[in-house]
Structure formats: structure tokens, C-alpha cells
Amino acid sequence: MDGAWWPYSRDAAVELPRLIAAVDRLLDRVTLRIGVYGDAWRNIPRRVPARGRQVRVGWFRHTDPRVLTLVFASGEPVVLLVIPAETAAGAAEATLKRIVQDAAGLTIDAILTLAQPPAGRAPRATADDPARWENEGGAVTGQAQPHRPHGRQP
Q: Could you tell me if 94 and 52 are in contact, meaning their C-beta atoms sit under 8 angstroms apart?
């Protein structure tokens, strides 16, 4: 597991371009392909726009539905844990922190146990909320600060 991502929705056509833009910028790489679990997303395009190019999207039914894989022009692929969009803010943030601290030795199930929604979920930022992460496809709660895919940088 190289990091985690907390999208706003399961609409791949909306969320994937933001993720690709953020990862390209943060890792200074060019994403060529992205692989997702087909049943975990709706509206999956064959390609998504990204900085003057089109990134191929592959959807599979024989992969872990909780992860997605980014394939670059050079270097090894990056595997991200996808925190479900409906996850409560506190649980999602705890999961992101766990990934940042190093999830080595933890299974995906162990990491996602942190993301179980508690009985009273905190509301997420809405599309009109100024704290919304408009360029990178994630969620910011509390203070307006950028939310980035977390994890070990290659």
C-alpha cells in the first residue's frame, strides 16, 4: 500500500481526473493508466483528461475493490487504498494518518477497520463549501487546507 485516497463520490468520471492531477503533481510523474475495481465505481470512462493527454482507465472484477492502481510512464505502479466516500470524517482522517505513519505489516482489513463509520457520522464538506478540495478530489474538514493522497512517496 503506497497511500490512501478519500474521494467525494463513487463517480469515476468526476473523481479520477482530480486524483490523477494531484498524483502527477505531487510525485512529479506522468500517469498513463489507472486500474479500478469495476463494481466499486459508477460512470467509469474509458479515458480521463489529464494535462494535455488522455489517461486510460481499466476496470476489473478480479482485483481488490478497496484499492486502485496508478501506472506511470516510468517507475513502479502506485497502489492506493480507497476510503469509501461515505466514511465519516473522523474515521477517514484516522485512516489517512495511519497510512502516513506507515501501514507496513497491516492488512487492508486492519487499515479499513479504522474507517468504520461511528453511530453519529460527521457531515462532509459539500460541493459549495469553501473548504472543498476542488483541484484534487478529496475532502477537507475543519480548516481550509489541501487534502492530498497520503503515503510513502517513491
A: no
pTM over 0.85: no
Q: CB–CB of 48/13 below 8 Å?
A: yes
Nearby residues of 88 by Cβ (< 8 Å), 6 or more positions away: 117, 118, 121, 122
- Per residue in 21-72, pLDDT (tens digit) is 999 999 898 999 999 999 999 999 999 999 889 999 999 888 888 999 999 9
The sheet that has 31-37: what strands, in order across it?
3-5, 78-82, 67-72, 31-37, 53-60, 47-50
Domain ranges for the chain:
3-86
